[in-house]
From TrEMBL:
SUPFAM superfamilies: P-loop containing nucleoside triphosphate hydrolases
Domain ABC transporter: 9-248
Name listed for the protein in its UniProt record: Nickel import system ATP-binding protein NikD
Broad class of enzyme this protein falls into: translocase
Family per similarity comment: Belongs to the ABC transporter superfamily.
Keyword flag Nucleotide-binding: yes
GO molecular function per UniProt: ABC-type nickel transporter activity; ATP binding; ATP hydrolysis activity
Amino acid sequence: MLTIDRLSLQLPLYVSWWKREWATCLNECSLKFSAGEVHAVVGASGAGKSLLAYAVMGLLPTPARLSGQIGYKGEPLNASRQRKLRGRELALIPQSLNALDPLARTKRQVAWAAQRAGHSSRHARHAAQRALDHYQLDARAQQAYSHELSGGMARRVLAAMAHVSQAQLVIADEPTVGLDPLHRQRVLDALRGLADQGKTVILITHDLRHALPIADRVTIMRNGQQVETAPARAFQDSGASLTNTYSQALWLALPDNGFSSHAVSHAPQTEQEATVA
Ligand SMILES: Nc1ncnc2c1ncn2[C@@H]1O[C@H](COP(=O)(O)OP(=O)(O)OP(=O)(O)O)[C@@H](O)[C@H]1O
Ligand code: NI
């Protein structure tokens, strides 16, 4: 469905106002995402998760140096295809709440997302209403402008927009940050539901604990590199079937597993270090 092959990304880093260097933000990432699965991409802040999402959607900042291949349904996903499919076949629930249009009320904004996906305007209004109800956005929230919404409400509006897009591929970038447990569960269940309908769902999160119950596979990222891709069931007991010490440390650091956060910060960066350690 979606294949990422040796994707590397460098972005400019201004070491002083006249001197620009290129910082490697993604380093030879190769990933495959299949229809019908929730594939979680998990890593600490700055690991490169959002940039991976932007690279797939064609929303990287410029200038950027990108190498490697991205394929979608067997064909290269180039810039013109990304433009054509974005908001239709490819949907992103962005991490930043600034993605909401400050000049449109909630309901209109969700209806636009549905219309963009190809619904007639009447259908779009219905689809928007269903999605808004699903995410428990009440009449007041539906009439509100984005600055009048709480962070958690705004995040649910973004989820509703992705929901109405009818996309084949949904990338949800930290979709549950700031949500209470009930709403978090609704969003996660909705993502699982999309995968069960045969769609491809990429769940980006720093929280392995929330991802595991709905994920089929998990990719752990660190410092722009993909550390390991494993089935979600590998994250159990002592994590012995995980091949990488950092993935194991992330798993063991979860509160129910002994809470050894020391292990995460001291996990070796590379396999080479792991052998040395
Ligand atoms: N527009 C940009 N220009 C330069 N560097 C950037 C830009 N956006 C991100 N970076 C750098 O790329 C790295 C990865 O960023 P990214 O946003 O993908 O991390 P992330 O894994 O999504 O983190 P978080 O969990 O905090 O959202 C970071 O070191 C960040 O500083
Ligand atoms: Ni991010």
